[in-house]
Amino acid sequence: MLGEFLKAFEDIMYLEKYTESKGMLQKINALIKLLSLTAILLSAVVSRSIYSLFALFVIVISLSTLSRIPLGYLLRRVTLFIPVFAAAIASPLLFITPGSTVAHINIGPLIIQVTIEGIEKASIFTFRIWICVAALNLLILTTKFTQIIQSMEELGLPRIFINMIAITYRFIFLFINEAYRMILAKQSRTTRKESRMQHLRFITNMFSTLFVRAYEKGERVYSAMLARGFNGATRTHNHNKKKPTDSLFLLAVFSICGLILSIEILRSAGW
Amino acid sequence: MSQNAVELKNVRYVYPDGLIALDDVNLEITKGEKVAIIGPNGAGKSTLLMNIAGIIKPSQGEINIFGTALNDKNIYEIRRKVGLTFQNPDDQLFCSTVFEDVAFGPTNQGLTEDEVTSRTKEALRHVGLEGYENRQPHHLSEGEKKKVAIATVLSMHPRVLIIDEPTANLDPKSREELIELINNLSREQEFTLIVATHDVEAVSQISDRIFILNKGRVVAEGPVREVFSQLNLLREARLQPPTIFQLFNRLAEKGFAAPKNMPLTIDEALDEIQRLRLKK
Amino acid sequence: MHIPDGFLDYTICAITYAGSIIFWILAFRKAGKNLTDKQIPLMATLTAMFFAAQMMNYPIIGGTTAHLLGGPIVALTLGPYAGMISMTIILLIQALFFGDGGITTLGANVWNMGVIGVFIPYAVFVLITKIRRSRRALLIGAFIGAFLGDVLAAVFAGLELGSSSIFPYAAPIAVATMGIHHSFIGVGEGIVTAGVLRFLLKTRPDLLQLPQFKLLTKEL
């Protein structure tokens, strides 16, 4: 139960390390980055051939290196969990996909066949997901969340919504901390294994207590806003200026993705 | 023309659930004065401060800020003149970067971007946190959060600065720093300072005059030494004078010559002891 | 339950984005009118709290653990429209800060957990409290609503995965797997949802805004 919280703390503490280094992606405007990485994600989703996926893989790895993210760290962060999980989902494909057999596994009278088509299907599925998770992580590792909020503002999302995201983001850490301390305090007084029901009861009590605290905190934050002249219409000054290099980067990513997409479309049309 | 920065006349505040938080409170704070409001937990200190800052309206009575009575129309103008720093900096800092938080007030005042930026820089310089603009509040230490919280108010250029419990939850070093910061600020800038606290040791270092608030009423007011001499009143309000002050009181009881001005701080005590030694 | 990028076809992504955006606009029209200045910080701190509370996991079957989806309790405390906005913010931060979920699949995740997972519990709750108006009916409504909300959200996730050509299994398998798994999660979600409401009814009924609660507290 504490594991989740510890992982969150780790994310909070270490993510910023990479967002502050002066790599290539860190210098790109957040909205541009969001758009380009979405283009890469969409290309990966559309691509059926291993060659297109490999091209995207090379792009992702190069971007990561240019952004001074250690390769080992990226591989560990990306591969663990989602792609491993995807590989597990895909593993039955090795056996159930019809095609030319490359290996047999004999379990008593049962003969299980592994097909080349099965291997291809499973590895393309897993590889695609790896690329996608890596692309998302490139965004996360090189962009501060405050910049993402600003880019959503540039996208024209409603002011109220932007304000709410910003305040929520600010207080998430506070409540994660509070929940963590409550769990610690409870575990220090837990001296035997609990039943499922006892566990759910603890979650219920903790949830309820946090609810009341969050409500009261919201009221106090509102007072603090009033004290500083808040009258409903919040204004902000935007500091996100786009540079020519940003447009150049966007153009480059879009053309590469466009090329991959057109090859894919031509292929599926029977070329 | 009144010289009072803040004036409360028969102020009463009743919470929606019927709890009487303030009862017939009268106070006058003159321009440029440094006062402290002390009282036990639940005495109504924070409620009083929020009334003065125009965040909540008194149920009865009148509040005048620089001679103007607070009403619904001038509330925003009053809030601009009276800056309130909340006890818990986690309530005060709700933006995702230090810059945005310090800029929130001036931005709401409708200043231009350049003005907002320069005021934010200036406020952070005043609290000794230059270069903290892009830091995120949740990464700061408690002492730093308190300083940023003060900066969020300084950036609005208030004429009255109110700080609720400035020294609560701080380690000794941060506490010292904060007291020094408040003293520097009130020396450099010409504002009226109101501090609410139950840190009696800090009171004598920050303020000239104190009010004791107990159960929603002002039970004593006057210069620091005078109020701390009223031991019975303090006890009733669950407070104690500063340790040094107590020590000299006890010494006086034991027959040592009582100094004319009872020392409140270690420095004053040292001076007094020096003087006693010279006499001998 | 958070579908990452690379699991859904772009057509499914587009359809679910469209569906979510329609509800999102509706939510802003509806909630936007009632959103006073005060509600902004209030909703934000509550959303942050829901985020943290959802991180707690509980054992389900065979040594596996699961998270609360959160939609039901958000729906019954904030109302469905504000609840949907709150869930959208949670899913956005989960995807773009913690890497749970994805960018192309955000529409699908919002649809499953922010629309289905919020409106179904609310609708079931309203229906059951209409049939019987008592404290017990409130809690039963919350439990059943939360359970069905979770299961239906999972069924939709299964449908989206199953209809995607890049996902290797057909819809029946995906729907069955997701649905069965989440029926266990749904029981836990139901117990916690009803439990939190019971706690709040007892200690701070003033914080419960839905008219169903107001009627009950007036009667008591």
Structure write-up:
The complex is a heterotrimer of chains A (271), B (280) and C (220). Chain A has 271 residues and is mostly helical. Chain A has helices at residues 2-20, 24-27, 30-46, 50-66, 71-79, 82-90, 93-96, 116-142, 145-154, 159-187, 196-227, 244-268; strands spanning 101-107, 110-115. Chain A contains 12 helices and 2 strands; from the N terminus they run αααααααββααααα. In chain A, α1 (2-20) crosses α10. In chain B, 42% of the residues lie in helices and 22% in strands. Chain B has 280 residues and is of the alpha/beta class. Chain B contains 12 helices and 10 strands. In chain B, β9 and β10 form a beta hairpin. Chain C has 220 residues and is mainly alpha-helical. Chain C has one domain (10-219): Arp2/3 complex 21 kDa subunit ARPC3, CATH 1.10.1760. Chain C has 8 helices and 2 strands. Chain C has helices spanning 10-34, 39-54, 71-78, 80-96, 106-131, 135-163, 171-203, 211-219; strands at 57-59, 65-67. In chain C, α2 (39-54) packs across α4 (80-96) and α6 (135-163) runs antiparallel to α7. Chain C is globular. Chains A and C meet through α1, α3, α6, α8 and α10 of A and α1, α2, β1, α4 and α7 of C.
Share in β-strands of chain B? 15-25%
- How much helix is in the residues of chain C? over 70%
Order of helices and strands of chain C: HHEEHHHHHH
SS elements, strand count of chain C: 2
Q: What distance separates the N and C termini of chain B? A: 53 Å
Q: What characteristics describe this protein?
A:
heterotrimer; A: 271 residues; mainly alpha; two-stranded antiparallel sheet; C: 220 residues; Arp2/3 complex 21 kDa subunit ARPC3; two-stranded antiparallel ribbon; 8 helices; 2 strands; 3% strand; globular
Task: Produce the secondary structure layout.
The complex is a heterotrimer of chains A (271), B (280) and C (220).
Chain A: H1 2-20, H2 24-27, H3 30-46, H4 50-66, H5 71-79, H6 82-90, H7 93-96, E1 101-107, E2 110-115, H8 116-142, H9 145-154, H10 159-187, H11 196-227, H12 244-268
Antiparallel strand pairs in A: 1-2
Chain B: E1 4-14, E2 20-30, E3 34-38, H1 45-52, E4 60-65, E5 68-69, H2 75-81, E6 82-85, H3 89-92, H4 98-108, H5 113-126, H6 142-154, E7 160-164, H7 172-188, E8 192-197, H8 200-206, E9 209-214, E10 217-223, H9 224-229, H10 231-236, H11 243-253, H12 266-279
Parallel strand pairs in B: 3-8, 3-9, 6-7, 7-8
Antiparallel strand pairs in B: 1-2, 1-4, 4-5, 9-10
Chain C: H1 10-34, H2 39-54, E1 57-59, E2 65-67, H3 71-78, H4 80-96, H5 106-131, H6 135-163, H7 171-203, H8 211-219
Antiparallel strand pairs in C: 1-2
